[in-house]
Each structure stands twice: as structure tokens, then as C-alpha cells.
Design a protein that fits this description.
This protein has 297 residues and is an alpha/beta fold. The protein has eleven helices and eleven strands. The protein folds into three domains: 85 residues, Winged helix-like DNA-binding domain superfamily/Winged helix DNA-binding domain (Arc Repressor Mutant, subunit A, Orthogonal Bundle), CATH 1.10.10; 102 residues, Periplasmic binding protein-like II (D-Maltodextrin-Binding Protein, domain 2); 101 residues, 3-Layer(aba) Sandwich (D-Maltodextrin-Binding Protein, domain 2), CATH 3.40.190. The termini are far apart. Keywords: DNA-binding, Transcription, Transcription regulation.
Length: 297
């Protein structure tokens, strides 16, 4: 059996137009070519697809049964060809993006939507990870792009473009002893257990670690739950409070004696200089750079 896309298209068009001649006109072919193609298809399938009685061919029950599957198959074949063409022009087969867990609440899905619109056949994998793990995934090339906070020390292998600023604030449960104080000293904070978002690798020290006594978790949602349950204080995205007003009833932003209780960081799109990026990753980087240029004008 050697059935090709052209035969399937002719079969679909004959059913939809109601005749060989109408299908031929729609496809830009002579009627005899369409008639012969359908006849060969019937031979290959060992099925009678049309009753040739009267002026117009009448689809058989078998033809109607195959018609719906033919529509789906032609769509998939076109998608396959488009994907193959995209790959031949440099599109990566899969784009792996890691989002730092504290940034999951941001508008990162806007960028994924943009990629889907321009590269509909692209497979995209999204994972979340603590800051330190996200960078390591870039460097070992298990991810091509990362949405993460600015780093205190840049690795020579990384390259980035700035996206926005994000604020983090120290918070504690409303029933925690620190919450009863109008202002808290830094010494009091470091003597109190901290819930810190950290790498899954316990040998890596978290960037936002201040307390001598601390518990680790790999995402800010579980950190928030632990802080709400009065297990310690922690640093959470300020935007979480805007998205979830209920948190304002359960958590208190600590007022500090010595400095403003707000840590502002740039959020970057980061990639490795050692990675050979595909068309989609390069497109997103260029898009963000263009956005920055327009914003800065």
C-alpha cells in the first residue's frame, strides 16, 4: 500500500465538492487525473470508495468512515512538513526554559505565548528551580534559557538581558513574636529561624540567607506555607501580596531598624555563551532587547 498526501487530498476534495470535475477545478487539475487517482486509491485500499451511478460519484459508507480520519491525517502531515521546514531553518526541536521559583507569579507566560504564536510546532518544557539550580541547568545545557534574579557574581559563561525589577520583602506570621514588634533589628532577625528558598544541593549556600538557624525549601510557595504556619520568617516576592490579598491577613512585612525592608533585584533572561541557541531562543532574546530599547527611548 503506497498512499500519498496528494491522493488523500483528492479524496477529501471529491467528497467535499461532490464530483470529480469540481474537485479538479478546485485543485487545478484535469478531471481524468482526479478520477485516476481515486481509482488507484481504491485499488491500494481494496475498497470501493464511490458508487459511480448517475452523473456524480456517490461516497460509500467506507468513504465516509475514512473521510474524518483523512481530514486529521492531512492536518498532521502539513504540521509535520512545517515542523521539518522549521528545523531545517534552525528551530530547536525542544526549548527548555527554567523559571526561578520566586518568579513563577510574574508574567513569564507572556513570553511563552509569544513563542507559541511564532513557532507553533515548537515543543517547550518549563521547569521551576531555585536560583542556584537554575544557573547550573544553563551551564550544563539541560536548559537553554532561564528567567532568574541578577547574580552577585557573574559566571564568565553566562550572558543575559534585563527584563524588569522585582521586590522581595522579609515577612513573618502575624502570630510570630517578631510580628509583635514595631521595628525589628537585624540582630533579632539573624537569631530567629529563617525559611529560605534554596538549591536542592545542600552544599550550596543560599543567596538570601541571613539567619544562623534556617530551614530550606526549593520553592517560594512551600516557603510561604511554612511562614504562615509560624515556623520562621522568610523573604517572599512583594507581588505575592498583590495577587493574594488573604496573605496580608496572615503575614506581616517586617519593619527594620537599620535599612528599608525591601530587596530590589533585576530579573534577567539568561543563557549560556557555550550553548548553540536555536531560532526560538534567539527570537525571544531579540524581542526582549527590542523592548528594552523602546522603553529606554
Amino acid at each position: 500500500m503506497n498512499i500519498n498526501q496528494e491522493q488523500l487530498l483528492m479524496f477529501q476534495t471529491v467528497i467535499e465538492t461532490g464530483s470529480f470535475s469540481a474537485a479538479a477545478r478546485k485543485l487545478g487539475k484535469v478531471p481524468s487525473a482526479v478520477s485516476m487517482s481515486i481509482a488507484n486509491l481504491e485499488i491500494d485500499l481494496d475498497l470501493n470508495l464511490f458508487e459511480r451511478v448517475g452523473r456524480e460519484p456517490k461516497p460509500t459508507d467506507e468513504a465516509w468512515a475514512l473521510y474524518e480520519k483523512t481530514q486529521q491525517l492531512l492536518i498532521e502531515m502539513n504540521q509535520w512538513k512545517q515542523h521539518a521546514h522549521a528545523l531545517s531553518t534552525g528551530l530547536e526541536s525542544t526549548l527548555n526554559i527554567v523559571v526561578v521559583s520566586e518568579l513563577l507569579h510574574t508574567n513569564w507566560t507572556d513570553y511563552i505565548t509569544l513563542l507559541e504564536q511564532h513557532f507553533p510546532s515548537l515543543a517547550i518544557n518549563i521547569v521551576s528551580a531555585p536560583q542556584e539550580d537554575a544557573l547550573q541547568m544553563l551551564l550544563d545545557q539541560s536548559a537553554q534559557l532561564a528567567l532568574m534574579f541578577e547574580r552577585e557574581h557573574l559566571d564568565s559563561r553566562e550572558q543575559f538581558v534585563e527584563l524588569k525589577r522585582e521586590a522581595l520583602v522579609p515577612v513573618v506570621s502575624n502570630i510570630h513574636p517578631l510580628a509583635q514588634l514595631q521595628e525589628v533589628s537585624f540582630e533579632q532577625m539573624i537569631q530567629t529561624r529563617q525559611i529560605v528558598v534554596a538549591s536542592r544541593d545542600n552544599t550550596i549556600k543560599p543567596e538570601l540567607l541571613y539567619s544562623k538557624d534556617y530551614w530550606r525549601t526549593d520553592n517560594h510557595h512551600s516557603a510561604c506555607m511554612m511562614i504562615v504556619r509560624n515556623l520562621g520568617w522568610g523573604v517572599l516576592p512583594l507581588e505575592m501580596f498583590n495577587e493574594n490579598p488573604e496573605l496580608k491577613k496572615k503575614l506581616k512585612i517586617l519593619e527594620l531598624y537599620d535599612f528599608t525592608p525591601k530587596f530590589e533585584y533585576y530579573v534577567d533572561l539568561v543563557w549560556s555563551r557555550e550553548s548553540e541557541l536555536g531560532a526560538a531562543a534567539r527570537f525571544l532574546i531579540k524581542h526582549i532587547r527590542t523592548q528594552r530599547q523602546q522603553t529606554n527611548k
